[in-house]
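// run 5 | inverse folding | seed 20
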């Protein structure tokens, strides 16, 4: 365990807040498996040279959309649709057809191209609908997550503080078999803001009837979990799973985290 210079003593807390996706549940793994399932189911090789091409277009655009969604720049519906429409429109096997000139007129303006664009939009809508269900079907807990949650639940009131869509997150909570371990669940869509906005942490504090100094936040994401807890004046345990995790800016600020660990099992050494 690496402990930052912020903390010189192990502190006693009255409650624990914990992130869900990629702290307890393997969201990244489940999402990628679901995307692979969809690639085969919908024969997306008609649009992309490989699954890797599809994924490399999807992933950064999805991250960008979630960032915009957190800032209220796009709606939930737009995010759900465009994270598939964008890569489909830029796939090597469809993008060139839509962009290729025909005679002196841009091909994208022809009825054929407009029809293909409508076809792509319809497929994006279908992918959006299926993705949430298929991701939930692929959900699994991270190694050591059940042990940690049950350990913490015996010692503290435990509150999940997580971003995500209501219809997906509650299904994952139920599927995990751990829902009874949590005193409260604070979900961004229900609160009306996402981590790192301090308001979601303030809502969790209100539910527990506690002050910021009474709790600690556990999470894997510097930007959402750790920076969000710092914004709310709450101590943090950053699960930094590998040295390469995060950006250079995060690397330069890692010592502002109260505690830094590399595995879920190390959290139990602190709490």
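// decoded
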């Amino acid at each position: 365990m690496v402990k930052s210079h912020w903390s010189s003593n192990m502190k006693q807390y009255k409650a624990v807040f914990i992130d869900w996706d990629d702290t307890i549940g393997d969201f990244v793994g489940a999402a990628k498996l679901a995307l692979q399932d969809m690639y085969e189911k919908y024969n997306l090789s008609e649009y992309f040279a490989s699954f890797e091409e599809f994924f490399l277009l999807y992933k950064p655009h999805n991250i960008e959309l979630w960032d915009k969604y957190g800032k209220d720049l796009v709606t939930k519906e737009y995010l759900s649709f465009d994270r598939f429409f964008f890569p489909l429109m830029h796939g090597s096997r469809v993008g060139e057809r839509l962009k290729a000139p025909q005679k002196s007129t841009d091909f994208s303006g022809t009825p054929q191209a407009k029809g293909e664009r409508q076809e792509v939009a319809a497929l994006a809508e279908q992918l959006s609908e299926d993705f949430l269900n298929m991701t939930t079907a692929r959900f699994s807990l991270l190694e050591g997550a059940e042990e940690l949650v049950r350990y913490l639940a015996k010692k503290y009131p435990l509150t999940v503080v997580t971003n995500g869509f209501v219809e997906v997150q509650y299904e994952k909570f139920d599927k995990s078999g751990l829902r009874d371990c949590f005193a409260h669940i604070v979900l961004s869509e229900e609160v009306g803001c996402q981590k790192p906005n301090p308001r979601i942490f303030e809502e969790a504090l209100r539910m527990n009837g506690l002050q910021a100094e009474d709790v600690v936040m556990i999470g894997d994401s510097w930007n959402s979990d750790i920076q969000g807890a710092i914004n709310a004046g709450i101590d943090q345990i950053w699960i930094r799973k590998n040295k390469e995790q995060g950006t250079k800016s995060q690397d330069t600020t890692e010592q502002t985290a109260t505690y830094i660990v590399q595995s879920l099992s190390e959290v139990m050494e602190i709490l």
